[in-house]
Design goal:
Length: 130
């Protein structure tokens, strides 16, 4: 029988440490960007979504390619990464994938791109060349 006092210990043994990391708030990310201290941003949406508007400095790696491309990107496993997508579902999948690959400092952007856009925060839009 598991006693209530043992639950935190059991959770600590079975849940990866990174799962307890808090999301990064949009305000915190904007502040860190303004001081040139932003973590590496990973946009896991499709290339078309990325071109339609992404957060400045973000790398685009679609969620289904994260596992295959992580090594090619050369990102140290202890570097802070903030992952986002449109609403948060793909970002959560990407975070789980990255953590399973040994990345220890993966966080999600609170509200993802939809909330960033709703706040009126700037996005980089890429237009095709004429």
């Amino acid at each position: 029988m598991i006693r209530p006092r043992h639950v935190p210990l059991i959770l600590a043994l079975i849940v990866p440490f990174g799962a307890f990391a808090q999301d990064v708030s949009r305000a915190e990310l904007a502040e860190r960007q303004s001081h040139h201290e932003a973590p590496l941003l990973l946009d896991v949406r499709t290339p078309a979504e990325y071109r339609d508007g992404h957060i400045a400095g973000a790398l685009n790696v679609p969620v289904d390619e994260v596992a295959a491309r992580h090594g090619v990107l050369g990102i140290p496993r202890d570097r802070e990464l903030v992952v986002y997508c449109k609403s948060g579902k793909r970002a959560a999948r990407a975070r789980d994938t990255l953590q399973s690959l040994g990345y220890t400092r993966v966080r999600l952007l609170e509200g993802s791109a939809d909330a960033w856009r709703a706040d009126g925060r700037p996005l980089v839009v890429e237009r095709p060349s004429p």
